[in-house]
Write a structure and sequence with these properties.
The complex is a heterodimer of chains A (114) and B (118). Chain A is mainly β and 114 residues long. Chain A has no helices and 12 strands. The radius of gyration of chain A is 14 Å and the shape is globular. With 118 residues, chain B is mainly β. Chain B has 1 helix and 11 strands, in the order E-E-E-E-E-E-E-E-E-H-E-E. In chain B, the strands form 2 sheets. In chain B, strands 2, 4, 5, 6, 9, 10 and 11 form a 7-stranded mixed beta sheet that branches. In chain B, a hairpin with a 2-residue loop joins strand 5 and strand 6. Chain B is globular. The chains are: A mainly beta (114), B mainly beta (118). The interface between A and B is medium-sized, with 23 and 26 residues.
Chain lengths: 114, 118
């Protein structure tokens, strides 16, 4: 079955530091890949997505590139802010009978200090 | 405002006392889903619905029921809650598969319901 593995957290950074959160996946076919963000006390929001190999998703300074050869979708940001503190989830969606279902990684807690 | 609402947001109950968590969306989405979030496990799908009167099991359906009598509502029912169902629950909805195939896909999540079963 499908699975998503994220780097172990929590991750603690100083403001303006570079961020990488690793994400690798196992799936049949050609899944779509997503990063969701969950701010404290809130639901999940879509941060960015990529639907085919070599696509780059980007939003709010965050980027991730769909790498089929390494089955990865690592999240990066060049300069984090305190307001980026949240939980980040990597997820994939594949078709077939499980159409629409998202398979999530375990989440990575990011804390950014001033 | 496009949104998914859930009620209640917080609930503490006792083992065996039936409860329902409501979910409603105002975006006319066909697809709706329930997830539970547990530390170290991410979100796992409980049930989903492709349309009115069409529901199916996700990865962790045991101990839960759902119904989809109207497009906008998708309640989650725990007939006899147990402590292992203590969790954070999220409802989500999205565009129908026809549009999703074009890549225009996003699941919209509700704010979550924190359930504690003692």
């Amino acid at each position: 079955g499908n699975s998503v593995t994220q780097m172990e957290g929590p991750v603690t950074l100083s403001e303006e530091a570079f961020l990488t959160i690793n994400c690798t996946y196992t799936a049949t076919g050609y899944p779509s890949l997503f990063w969701y963000v969950q701010y404290p006390g809130e639901g999940l929001q879509l941060l960015l997505k990529a639907t085919k190999a070599d696509d780059k998703g980007s939003n709010k300074g965050f980027e991730a590139t769909y790498r089929k050869e390494t089955t990865s979708f690592h999240l990066e940001k060049g300069s984090v802010q305190v307001s980026d503190s949240a939980v980040y989830f990597c997820a994939l969606r594949s078709g077939g009978t499980s159409y629409g279902k998202l398979t999530f990684g375990q989440g990575t807690i990011l804390t950014v200090h001033p | 405002e496009a949104q998914v609402t859930q009620n209640p947001r917080y609930l503490i109950t006792v083992t065996g006392k039936k409860l329902t968590v409501t979910c409603s969306q105002n975006m006319n989405h066909e697809y709706m889903s329930w997830y539970r979030q547990d530390p170290g496990l991410g979100l796992r799908q409980i049930y989903y619905s492709m349309n009115v009167e069409v529901t199916d099991k996700g990865d962790v359906p045991e101990g839960y029921k759902v119904s989809r009598k109207e497009k906008r509502n998708f309640p989650l029912i725990l007939e006899s809650p147990s402590p292992n169902q203590t969790s954070l629950y999220f409802c989500a909805s999205s565009l129908p598969p026809g549009l999703a195939e074009s890549g225009d896909y996003e699941q919209y999540f509700g704010p979550g319901t924190r359930l504690t079963v003692t």
